[in-house]
Amino acid sequence: MRTAYSVETVRAAERDLMARLPEGALMRRAAAGLAAVCAELLGRGRGRVYGSRVVLLVGSGDNGGDALYAGARLARRGAGVTAVLLAPERAHAAGLAALRRAGGRTVEITGPDTGTGPDTAVGTGAEAGTVAALAAVRRADLVVDGIVGIGGTGGLRPAAVPLAEAAERSGAAVVAVDLPSGVDADTGEVRGTALRADLTVTFGTHKPGLLVDPAREYAGSVRLVGIGLDLPAEPELEALQHADVARLLPVPGAESDKYRRGVVGIAAGSARYPGAAVLAVAGALRGGAGAVRYAGPAGRDVIARFPETLVSDRGPKHAGRVQAWVVGPGAGDDAGPVAEVLAADVPVLIDADGLRLADASAVRARSAPTLLTPHAGEAAALLGVEREEVEAGRLAAARELAGRYGATVLLKGSTTLVAGPKDGDGTAVRVNPTGTSWLATAGSGDVLSGLAGSLLAAGLPARDAGSAAAYLHGLAGRRAADGAPVGAHDVAEAIPGAWRDVLRG
Ligand SMILES: NC(=O)C1=CN([C@@H]2O[C@H](COP(=O)(O)OP(=O)(O)OC[C@H]3O[C@@H](n4cnc5c(N)ncnc54)[C@H](OP(=O)(O)O)[C@@H]3O)[C@@H](O)[C@H]2O)[C@@H](O)CC1
Ligand SMILES: [K+]
After folding, report:
1. Are residues 326 and 371 in the same domain?
2. Which residues are listed for (6S)-NADPHX binding in this entry (predicted)?
3. Of the residues 198, 215, 239, the one at which a domain ends
4. Do both 198 and 230 map to the same domain?
5. How far apart are the C-alpha atoms of 444 and 501, rounded to whole Å?
């Protein structure tokens, strides 16, 4: 399991640890880890650290301190290190001294935009500093972003923007210290310009922003350097890995029959959209339930494709016993099945049209679990905001919806998130690590809803069912696509292979 903790929790753990360690020990640990990763990158790119050109972008806090100490280590190994000081008067003093002792040089940038205060003179000196800094970045083999870390708010300040842009355009490897500067550590939001890193070296724990888009995209690959923080049991965010999903997946025993494995009901599709029914059933058949019942107007299409389905053209209420319902994919405007399903005392997954048709108070009143699976546009409609707002603040949107509906919410998209209600089966939001943009194809969500519904019928709690389904669905999408476009039915067919991968580790 990969976990992420909020800045507040990290700060508390840091205080506890600092009280037990000698002054500066924590930063030295962080800087040693950072320097080791930088040396590894330089070794890979240039063959050695000696003679390489390293530029440190240094802000006013400890994030800059980490960069300075790491720079000192690289300088001692023969790298030419230049520290660009964005807030010269406030740069970490001991780190700066260490860098200078190791032979590193500094370039100062001063001015009202740099965080050095409104009284600082702007003039040719500031311009000369910026020009020299930009030239150093363009020639660099490695740029280390120590502008700001968990103490940051908002995007990059104006003086840092050209440097971040130059770093991105240069051929240098860009390593962010703790977080790419300009992203929000707790939410993954990017409200302004942020630095784009090839790699982020983060300390003690992942921060939520490193796992959630849009910030995640700025971080590049992420390396975690342990510094001995003692963190609480329940993280803010968790990303399941193969072994975690393997523990969740239902595997039939000798005593299993179809009812013990679970029967999932699919109330989906319409005369206009029969394909949604077929795809939801396709997902459900690969999701571990013992049987799939289909209730709706597309039974003939379903049976033609999947003869093993139990089909009924009467409403869900008369369809027979199920352990979970999936309602909504391709449902059109018929609110009847949604209301019938919500009245059933079994777990219910609501997707697509069903989200619009479901009565929020009926969802809140349910005692059995409900799993809502909107994409950003559907979530925006439910929240009464613009789609862009949901995409910019996915974590907040998922939590808000879960709170409003008293339901578990699986928010699909560039980073799929699963957030439970307050009284749900765990408070950490699950973030899916297996997503791929090849999955952004029509019908892919229908397959996911069937798959997750099947896991609900097999007895998984809503948060587990949603996150295990997203995980398998992402893996299946990757397997099916293998670098080329795929249709939703290909994804459904790749689910058993993904399942085997997970169980075999
Ligand atoms: N926690 C741990 O366990 C460990 C933490 N360690 C390290 O310490 C880092 C946290 O250090 P920190 O607390 O000094 O804050 P940091 O991020 O350097 O910001 C400093 C100042 O920047 C400013 N500022 C704000 N927004 C800004 C922006 N957008 N652009 C530019 N400037 C901005 C703002 O000051 P202002 O200018 O607003 O007065 C703020 O106070 C952490 O990320 C990790 O690297 C490791 O060494 C060891 C273990
Ligand atoms: K940073």
Report:
1. yes
2. 62-66, 149-155, 178, 276, 330, 375, 446
3. 239
4. yes
5. 20
Of the pLDDT bands very low, low, confident and very high (cuts 50, 70, 90), residue 257 is confident
pLDDT (tens digit, 9 = 90+) per residue, 324-354? 999 999 999 999 999 999 999 999 999 999 9
Residue 247 lies in a domain: no
Task: Report whether 63 belongs to an annotated binding site.
Answer: yes
Q: What is the DSSP string of 378-441?
A: HHHHHHTS-HHHHHHTHHHHHHHHHHHHTSEEEE-SSS-EEE--TTSS-SSEEE-S---GGG-S
Instruction: For a ligand 1 pocket test, name from 10, 90, 148 the mutation site with the most ligand atoms within 8 angstroms of its C-beta.
Output: 148
Q: What is the Å distance from ligand 2's center to 143 Cα?
A: 11
Best substitution site from 17, 178, 193, 231 to test ligand 1's pocket, by max atoms within 8 Å of Cβ?
A: 178
Residues 6+ apart with CB under 8 A from 87: 58, 59, 60, 64, 114, 115, 116
67 lines ligand 1 (CB under 6 A): no
- Residue 247 CA to its chain's centroid (Å): 21
Total residues found in the chain within this entry: 505
Q: Is the ipTM of this complex over 0.95?
A: yes
pLDDT of residue 121: 40
Q: Do 205 and 275 fall into the same domain?
A: no
Is the Cβ atom of 60 under 6 angstroms away from ligand 1? Answer: yes
Does 132 appear as a known binding residue?
no
* 227 among annotated binding-site residues: no
What's the distance, CA 145 to chain centroid?
A: 22
- Looking at all shown ligands, the one closest to residue 70's CA atom is 1
> Token digits for 85?
């000081």
First to last CA, the chain: 13
Best residue among 60, 90, 120, 225 to mutate for probing ligand 1's pocket (most ligand atoms within 8 Å of CB) is 60
> Which pair of structure tokens corresponds to residue 437?
């943009």
Residue nearest atom 21 of ligand 1, based on CA coordinates: 61
Q: Are 202 and 212 in contact, with CB atoms under 8 Å apart?
A: no
Q: What is the pLDDT of residues 123-138, one digit of tens each?
A: 445 588 999 999 999 9
Domain that holds residue 338: 252-504
Nearest-atom number in ligand 1 for the CA of 31 is 47
Does 51 show up as a binding residue in the annotation?
no
333 found inside a domain? yes
pLDDT category, 427, cuts 50, 70, 90?
A: confident
Predicted pLDDT of residue 112: 52
User: Is 233 found in the same domain as 357?
Assistant: no
The token pair that represents 154 in the structure block: 């908002």
Ligand 1 pocket residue status of 163, Cβ below 6 Å: no
Atom of ligand 1 nearest to the CA of 13: 3
432 annotated binding-site participant: no
The residues, any chain, with a CB within 8 Å of residue 234's CB and separated by 6 or more, are: 426, 427, 428
Within this chain, do residues 194 and 293 fall inside the same structural domain, yes or no? no
| Domain at 124, CATH number | 3.40.50.10260
